[in-house]
Amino acid sequence: MRTLYVKFIVITTGMMLISFLFAFLISNTYYHQKIKPYNDQKNTNVALNIAAFANEHPDNNLGVYLENISEVGYQLYLVDSLGNEHYFGEPFRDKSLPASTKERVLNGQVFHGILHFPRETFVTGFFFNELRNSIGVPLKHNGVDYALFLRPDIKFLFGEMHVLFGWILLLAISLSILMVLINTRYLIKPISTLTKATKSLANGHYNVELASKRNDELGQLSESFLQMAKKLEQMDDMRKEFISNISHDIQSPLSNIKGYTNLLDDDSIKKEDRIQYVSIINSEIRRLSSLTKQLLLLASLDRNEDVMQKKWFKVGKQIKGLIHNYQWAINEKGLMLSYSLPDIEIMGDPAFLATVWDNLLSNGIKYNVPNGSMEISIEERGNSVFVKFVDTGLGMSGKEVDRIFERFYRADTSRTRSIEGTGLGLSIVSSIVKLHNGVITVKSNEKQGSTFIVELPVK
Ligand code: ADP
Q: Which residues, including other chains, have CB under 8 Å from residue 110's CB and lie 6 or more apart?
């Protein structure tokens, strides 16, 4: 935070200084181009008027007259042909002036020192309090030839108004620097709060608080950060729940297997009990095996789309094959199965989609009532195919429907609990459908039955 704060201040003040420098260079160029010739002309006129007045009034004391002129804001230098020099007003910092210049003015020429003063990049000619930076005019008084050199006194140019403007400028600069200091602190504060929050998030504390009411980009950043923290917390919760579910689902069949193998150890148990125990052990092993298979499948689906090997295949034919596999279970439960499965070809991964139909079909059988019915149909509409599984089984409540695609979720009714399952089937179904850019919808009513519709793009 410190470095960003310092950087910001340095850059802003640097920018202010650079702007000031540019402004000065531009106005200095303007002075040399426009103001300097105008200034030279103005002062030449003043000097000529003074000389003319002195010439026309030989009775006036020249020294007193020039002293009065100096008091209204001029620095004057008077020299005669004999080299007698007089200064009036503020002294010149540099009094050097070539003898030839004086000579020429004494001979009647006008000297334009202000106009021809050498150009300096960083100092405006105004400020050079030098004799060379003046206007020289010939002056005749009482028959004596003089050369009069004149320049405006800089002190008079900087009158009260100028001092006032000077103060305004100084105050404006100081106040802007102060405001930059305060404002930068205000700007940087949310970033440092965010950094603190990131650190606490990295340490696993998801309950970060960022009281930012700003509507700018930093406010949006804080908002997104909070959303991210919430998502991470949810994912962390899901991960913990997932692990505890897996541990539970692996642990319970294992302890069942252990318990029944201990019982089998006893030589005195009856044959029919032995048969029953072995069958329970087998069923628990099947459960474990199906759980690990489903977990492996979920893990590969989680990775990304690359796991898919898409090709054209006939969905109807595939579902008919599956129905054939489940015929014994359908007969055992006395279910009435009807289907309409036209030969529609779609582009997809046949192995993954077989898992989808397998889950929906086996659920329709598992969660059905004895002598219930099932209906499976495929329909092509526009660029999609709709595969529908309707059963007249146990059905689900609205709340249960909302959660059936969650991993390990099983509707917790006494009826479904007695049915074998892992709670992973439908989450696998939903992942596969999503990978195919499809949609799955469910309608269900308790004790009446459920309808699962899978919509898939044809290609
Ligand atoms: P499993 O069948 O292994 O429990 P699933 O993910 O396939 O897991 O299903 C999740 C839950 O959704 C099931 O436990 C069951 O409660 C409910 N369910 C799924 N299909 C049906 C259906 N056709 N009729 C009634 N309930 C269903």
A: 44, 47, 48, 135, 136, 137, 138
